[in-house]
Amino acid sequence: MTGPGTDPAPRPGPGISGTTRLYAVLGDPVAQVRAPGLLNALFARTGTDAVLVPLHVTPADLATVLRGLRALRNLDGVLVTVPHKIEVCRYADELAPAARLAGSANALRRNPDGTWRADNFDGAGFVHALRAHGHDFADAEVALFGAGGAGRALACALLTSGVRRLHLFDPDATHREDLLTRLTELRPGWAREGTDEALARVDLAVNASPLGMRPGDPLPFAPDRLPPHGTVADLVMKPAETALLRAAAAAGRPVVPGGPVLDSQVALYRDFFGLTAGAPPEGGPTP
Question: Within a 10 A sphere around the Cβ of 266, how many other Cβ atoms?
Answer without folding.
Answer: 17
